[in-house]
């Protein structure tokens, strides 16, 4: 009797383990599908934001051409696009600058806009030029599906600066624009 009970319970345990493996596999597939759907939703939202040409790249980091990376305040360090108007600002609340917020603010006209979408990698590449009174700035931005971006800014008369941060709608942005030159 004991032998039969052990045999039956061993068979039930093996069957239960098989069901557990199947349940885990099914749960894993469901989780993967949910993650892919979320990425697709974020990708579409970022696409809509970029094609509207009304967004702000709020930088959390700035990096120079030597690779030095610095944490910055996103409300003072940004690239803002509003249709054909572009604003580039670098600021530091602990310093005095031309713009009143410890840095420089440049405002100009957006020209040479080219947006490429990679649906396979769920990313974007944006190239544009901002023509301001004091300089012309070429900007190339790599953006992932979630809106995280790395923008390389090259000025004709200035060096290279890289802005890293999130792209947000202009109406949701909390940036503070200083006086422009």
Looking at this protein, list some descriptive labels.
181 residues; alpha+beta; Lipocalin; 1 helix; 9 strands; 43% strand
Helix-strand blueprint:
Elements: H1 2-52, E1 54-64, E2 69-71, E3 78-82, E4 85-90, E5 104-118, E6 123-132, E7 136-144, E8 148-155, E9 160-169
Total domains: 1
Beta strand count: 9
Low-confidence segments, ≥5 residues, pLDDT <50? none
In whole angstroms, the N-to-C terminal distance is: 93 Å
SS element count, helices: 1
Biggest sheet, in brief? 8 strands, antiparallel, barrel
Summarize the structure in words.
It is a single chain. An eight-stranded antiparallel barrel has the order 1-3-4-5-6-7-8-9. The model has no long low-confidence stretch (mean pLDDT 87). The protein has one helix and nine strands; from the N terminus they run αβββββββββ. 25% of the residues are buried. By secondary structure, it is of the alpha+beta class. The chain has a single domain, classed as Lipocalin (Beta Barrel). It is 28% helix and 43% strand. It has one helix at residues 2-52, and strands spanning 54-64, 69-71, 78-82, 85-90, 104-118, 123-132, 136-144, 148-155, 160-169. The protein is elongated.
Could you write a compact summary of the structure shown?
This protein has one domain: Lipocalin.
């Amino acid at each position: 009797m004991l032998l039969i009970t052990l045999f039956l319970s061993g068979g039930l345990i093996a069957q239960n383990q098989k069901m557990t493996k199947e349940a885990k596999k099914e749960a894993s597939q469901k989780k993967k599908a949910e993650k892919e759907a979320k990425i697709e939703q974020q990708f579409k939202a970022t696409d809509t934001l970029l094609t509207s040409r009304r967004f702000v790249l709020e930088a959390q980091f700035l990096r120079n051409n030597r690779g030095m990376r610095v944490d910055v305040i996103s409300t003072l360090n940004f690239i803002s696009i509003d249709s054909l108007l572009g604003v580039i600002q670098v600021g530091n609340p602990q310093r005095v600058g031309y713009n009143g917020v410890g840095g420089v603010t440049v405002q100009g006209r957006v020209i040479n806009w080219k947006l490429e979408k990679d649906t396979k990698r769920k990313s974007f590449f944006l190239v544009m030029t901002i023509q301001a009174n004091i300089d012309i700035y070429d900007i190339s931005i790599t953006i992932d599906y979630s809106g995280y971006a790395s923008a390389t800014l090259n000025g004709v008369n200035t060096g290279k600066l890289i802005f890293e941060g999130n792209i947000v709608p202009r109406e949701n942005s909390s940036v503070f624009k200083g006086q422009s030159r």
